[in-house]
Amino acid sequence: MNEEALEILQMNALELLGIQLEGYDMNDLKGISNHIKSPFTNTSRKQFKSELKHFIVNMKSNKIYHYTNVFDVNFLIFKFKKYKQVYIIGPYMEQRPNERRCNELLQQANIKISKLTILKQYLLRIPLCHHVKAQKMCRLAIRFLKKRNIVYETETIDFHFHLSTDSLAESKAQVDFTLKEIEQRYNLENQLLTAVENGNVDEALEILNRMNLSVSGLRRVKDDILNEQYKAFLINILCRKAGEKAGISLIHIDEISEKYASMIDQTMDSEGINEIIHSIVKEYAERAMKTKANAYSPKVSKVVQYIERNLDRPLTLKELAAHVELAPSYLSRIFNQEMKQSISQYVIELRVKKGRDLIARTKMTVSEIALYVGFKEQSYFTQCFKKQYGMTPLKYRTEHKEFF
After folding, report:
1. 68 close to 105: Cβ distance less than 8 angstroms
2. Cα separation values, 316 from 226, 232, 321, 334, 349, Å
3. Which of 189, 204, 306, 361 could make an S-S bridge to 195, C-beta 3.0–4.6 Å?
4. How buried is 235 (Cβ within 10 angstroms: 0-12 exposed, 13-18 middle, 19+ buried)?
């Protein structure tokens, strides 16, 4: 399986169409069901599990399956039998439903009108995409993943997940679904803040792409351009705060903020505003990186930046020395002289600091954060955290909640 091809396809699906492309192991019923479910889908029902499993097992490898749920949300699904993989493109909608249509959808699904808010919250996050474009992306994925230039036939399917009130998820599960979606958006915002503050340009831009996907359908105001401008102003404010914490000069922060505020105000097309948002995140993160780099000699500065960009994976002295073309022993000596600590101590301290920011700013679990910042074991992260900050991560979260 060509993982690189999949990553390129996922990036194109997101950037060109604003929709997801995900691959799952055929046995991963939980992952597949979580991808296609709505807030009202009772995934614990035997009928749901058996029907989904029956569909996956009996999928033909030479077909594209088009599933539209009862809320007009679409998915395209195909199978790569050789590698026992199932790929899903979506969710997406061709048209945003108005209030009247939302009420009709609830009635057709035998769902009480009191659930209108939950339905609207779900539909607001579904990106808009023309079905023909989604199909083209699906065929492109098949061509590159399977290395076959064949146009597969599309077959419409229906899982009948909402035929009766018995098939609906419990009210708590419906509310939990909505809260989880909101929580995920805020977690991403705060991960973006942390990446910008630490000067991690590539990570910040990758998180921005995920944010764009998670809020692609959200509208704060009715006018589409005003809605895009609202998002751009919000990103500018968030990055301004992150830049301030990174130690960027307030004069520079004000200059950057004012420049982009003016550009947002004068741009009247969605594509242009999205380019501005990308530039805002990139410039603030780069400025934060330069602010940190100016404190060290060129070689040590380059090592520090390399560490920050690759913090989530194992790093060795030999690798870092090769990156700056120095002998490992010499790099270790000059790093100790400038930083007053060893490279391994610096890496651990930086990982814990980044973890601390995520503890205070998100609702990610401690184990999720430990893995995210490069620790293999949660227990070791907790041990290092307690040594650095004098308390456990959970106690720190209780005393230092910043954004939630």
Report:
1. no
2. 48, 39, 9, 16, 16
3. 204
4. buried
Using CA atoms of 24, 27, 28, 33 in order, give the dihedral in degrees to the nearest 10. 100
Collapse the DSSP code of 268 into the 3-class scheme (helix H, G, I; strand E, B; otherwise coil) and give the result.
coil
Specify whether the CB–CB gap between 40 and 162 falls below 8 A: yes
Give the Cα separation of 59 and 341 in Å (integer). Answer: 58
Query: Strands of 85-92's sheet, edge to edge?
Result: 21-25, 85-92, 74-80, 63-68, 153-157
What pTM was computed for the model? Answer: 0.49
pLDDT at 162: 41
Instruction: State how far the alpha carbon of 162 is from the alpha carbons of 69, 136, 287, 320, in Å.
Output: 9, 29, 51, 56
- Give the span between the Cα atoms of 22 and 376, in whole angstroms: 25
Q: Which two tokens stand for residue 62?
A: 């030479």
pLDDT score recorded for residue 87: 94
Instruction: Give the model confidence (pLDDT) of 358-395 as tens digits.
Output: 888 888 889 999 998 889 899 999 999 999 999 999 99
What separation, in Å, do the N-terminal and C-terminal C-alpha atoms of the chain show? 40
pLDDT of the residue at 116: 83
pLDDT digits (tens, 9 = 90+) for 43-74: 887 878 888 888 888 889 889 999 998 899 99
Give strand pairing partners of 154.
Answer: 64
